[in-house]
Amino acid sequence: MQRLLCRIRAHPIRSAALLGALIGFLNALATEINAILHKSSSSVVYLLLPPSSYGRTASESSLAASAFILFIEIAASALSYALLLTIPVALYVGLRRLFLRRKT
User: What is the pTM of this model?
Assistant: First the structure.
């Protein structure tokens, strides 16, 4: 535990980015699971399973496209949350280092 706290203090910007990416990933995952449980049309996972009432069968291209859309959704969520948490931490660290240098 002590080593983890030392790493977080030594690399606050990296730690904020990692925490933000984790929160974004979990948020996208929770959104997909919630949409599946409530049978919402906002779920990308439903695109992976084409409806049989239309008479279509799952082709490799439609499955690949749906999987790619799901990957983009999760990656964009993780990246945006990472940026949202990293920018304020980077500004704080930069200003703190700037003002600490002026005093010495």
Answer: 0.76
